[in-house]
Batch of 2 targets.
Target 1
Amino acid sequence: GAGRHLWLGTSWKMTKTLAEARAYVSDLHREPVPDGVELFVLPPLTALHAVLDARPDGSVLRVGAQNGHWAQDGPVTGEVSMRQLRDAGAEIVEIGHSDRRAQFGETDQVVAAKVTAALDQHLVPLVCVGEPWSVRASGRAAAHVGEQVRTALSGVAPHDLARVLVTYEPVWAIGDSGRAAAPGHIVGVLDRVRSVVDELAPGVGLRGLLYGGSVTAANAGALLDLDDLDGLFVGRAAWTADGLAALLRTC
Ligand code: PEP
C-alpha cells in the first residue's frame, strides 16, 4: 500500500552454499525495491559475510542472522553471541523460530533472554511466535500467542519495544503444510499481540508486526491488504532471487 512501511524478508534456513548465496544477492539486485519497503535476508552464518559483500553500492538490503546466544561470550561450544553477530555485520536477528523451539527446546524464557541480549547489542530482534494446530483447533490461538509475546518481551524496557519486530507464524502454516492462515484468523491474533504490547508500554508500539507461514506471490497481496500487518516473513517462496523479486512486486 502507498505511504506505508512494509517489511519483506526471508530466512534461508539451512540452505545455500557461498556460490549460491552470492548469485542470489546479485540476481536480487536486478529488481527495484519500492519506496517504503524494508527488505531483508537472513542467510546461514557461513554466508553472512558473502551476502554483505555481494551487495552493490547503495543497496538497501538488510542482512541478519537466524539465531544468536544470550551470553556475551564464554564456553558455549557451537553458539554465536549477539555481540559477535553485530561485529560480523548483522543488523537483524531472528529469535524463537518454531524450528528452534521444536528441535532445540527453546522456551519463551530463552526467547526473552535472547531478545534483551539482541537489544543490548543494538540488533533488531525479529521475534517469532505462533500456535500449534492443537491450540488453533481449540480456539485459543490469540490467547496463546498473546502470552508468548508477553513473556518474550518481558525484559524489554518500554521505550525499546519500538525497536522490536514480531512475526506471527502459526506452526501449522509453516513449511510443507502449504496452508497459509486465513486473513480473518491473522487479524484476530494480531489484534491480541498489539493489545499485549500496549499493556506493556502504552502508546509505544512495535517497530513492526509481520506474518509468516506459506506466503507466496499469489497470496501476498491479500495479506498485505490487512491494515494491521506491517510485512511478510517468507521461507520457501523466497529461496530463489526470482521468488523474492516476485514478492517485492506485490508490495
Ligand atoms: C518460516 O519458516 O518462517 C516460514 C515462513 O516458512 P514458509 O514460508 O516456507 O512456510
Target 2
Amino acid sequence: RTDEDWWRTAVVYQVYPRSFADSDGDGIGDLRGLIGRLDHLEQLGVDVVWLSPIYPSPQDDAGYDISDYQDVDPTFGTLADLDELLAALHRRGMRLMMDLVVNHTSDEHPWFVESRSSPDSPKRDWYWWRPPRKGTVGGTPGAEPTNWESFFSGPAWTRDEESGDYYLHLFSRKQPDLNWENPEVRDAVYSMMRWWLDRGVDGFRMDVINLISKDVDLPDGIVRAGVLGDGTPHVMNGPRIHEFLAEMHREVLHGRDRKILTVGEMPGVTIEEAQLFTDPDRREVDMVFTFEHMGVDHAHTKWDLLPFDLVALRTVLGRWQEGLAEVGWNSLYWNNHDQPRVVSRFGDAGRWRERSATLLGTVLHLHRGTPYVYQGEELGMTNYPFVGIEDFRDIESLNHHRAAVELGADPEQVLAALRSRSRDNARTPMQWDASPHAGFTTGTPWLPVNPDHTEVNAEAATADHGSVFHHYRRLIELRHTDPVVAHGDFTMLLADDGTVYAFTRSLDDVELLVAANFSGERVRADLDLTGWADAELVLGNVEPGAGAGPGMPWEGNLEPWEALVLRRR
Ligand code: ISL
C-alpha cells in the first residue's frame, strides 16, 4: 500500500474541544486540556484526531460561526497551544484534521462586517445580499427574497436595517453564507487552507461543503408544513459543487509533500453523487459523511421520532457499501457532536449498555470504510437525562422548541423529541473519572456532566479488560493488523432479518463473518454455516465466546446483544 491511501487503514477520533478536557477551570474544555489527555487516545490506538472548531468565534453555534480563520479562540488557548498539540500528536504517530467551516462565516467576521457596511463595499458580493421581494414591504414577513427555512428554524434571510437588503444564512442569523460564485471568496479560502497546511496540519473535515454552490436564481422552495419552504434542492449539491471541490484540490491539496486527508460533510448527498465526490481520479475529496443512515429513525424531520428499524438501517448501509465498492470510499460513523448517543438510540442504554455499545462498535468497525469514533463513544456514553427546556444550550434545539411551540405544537411532545434527539446529548462533558465533574473541570461545566459518570468513565474503563474501551481498542487494532478489515469486499447477509445483522468480508483467501444480535433476547441466526466449522473466533463481546473455537464450532446462537467476528481461510 502506498502512502497515498494511508487513510484507508486509519481510524479517526473526533474531539469536541469545548467538552473534552478543561485545564483552567472555566468550565469549558481547551487545547491544554486535550494535550494533557493524549495518552487516552494513544492507548485507544487511533490514527487521526479531528478537532471541531477552535477558532475565534462569538460561539452562537458553538464555534461553527467563525470570526477569524487563522487564530485560536482565547477560550480554547493560543496558536502556540495548537502548534504544541500538533507536535505532540505527530510525536505519538497521530495526525491532526482541522474543521473547515467555509459555507458561512460569523456575522462578526471582518469580511461580513465590511460586506454589510455598504451596498458599495468591495466585499458586498462576498455574501448573498438581495433586496426585499418585489411588491412587498421590507422587514415584514414574506418580504424575504425566498421562502426558504433555515436549518435552525425561521427564515433563512435576515434584513439589515441600514441598507434594507437581506442576507442569506442557511443556519443561524449569525452565520451568513459566503458567495462561492465570487472568485475572491474562493481565493481567500484557499489561501487560508494553505496557511494551515504550511503549519503542519494533516487534513480537513469540511463542514456542510455540499451547500457551497447555490442555484443563483434562488427559486422558492416547496412548502410542506407551516409557511416556510424547503430550499435544500436549490443549495445541496448545486451546479458548481464538483467544479469548486476540484479547484480547491488543485489550488490547495495537490502536490503537497504528504497526502492530506479530506472528508466532506454532506447532508442530503446521494450515493451517485458520493461516487463522483470520492472517485480518486476526480481529485475532489477522500470520503463524505452521508446522513442517510442517521435518518432511519425519523419521519419527515429529525424531530419526528420513529422507532429503530434494523431492516431500514441495513438497507441504507448495505446500499452505501455496494455503491462505493468499485469506486470511492465510505466514512463510517454512529456519532458526532450533532447526533444523540448511539447506545441510547440503536442500542440499550440500560441493562445492556456495555453489551450493546460493543455490538454497535463491532458492526460499524467491520464495515468497509474509515471509522470515526466520537469522544465518549469508546466508553459507551449515553444520552443525558434532560428535563425542561432550561437544560438545553444548543441553538438548534432552542430555536426548534420556540418555533414549534409558536406553531401550536404540544410543548411536552417537543421536549420529548429534544430529549431523544438534541445535539446536547453528544455535548455533555467527557467522563474521565467518578469525581463530581467527572474529572472534566475543577470549575462548573458549561453543560452538566451525565450522572452516570460514576459508573461510565475512562478511568474505570481502562482498568477493566472487558470494557467498551478495550473492545474499541481491539477493533482498531484489528483494522491495523488484518488487511481484510480495511480492504476486503463486503457482502450483506440476511436482508430481511429484523434482529440479526450479519455480513462477510473477504480478501484473497481470508474471509470474516460478522454476526450481531440487536435484541435483548437469545436468538439463533438464520445463517448457512457450512464451511465455518473450523473458523477462529477473532473477537466477541460475550466471554468466553459463543462456543466457537477449535473443535467447538459456532452453531449460530447469539446471546442478548452479542456480536462476534469469525475468520476462516
Ligand atoms: O445537526 C444537524 C442534524 O440535525 C444538522 O442540521 C446540522 O446542522 C448539519 O448536519 C450541519 O452540521 C454542521 O454544520 C452546522 C453546525 O451547526 C454543525 O454542528 C455542523 O456539524 C453549521 O455549521
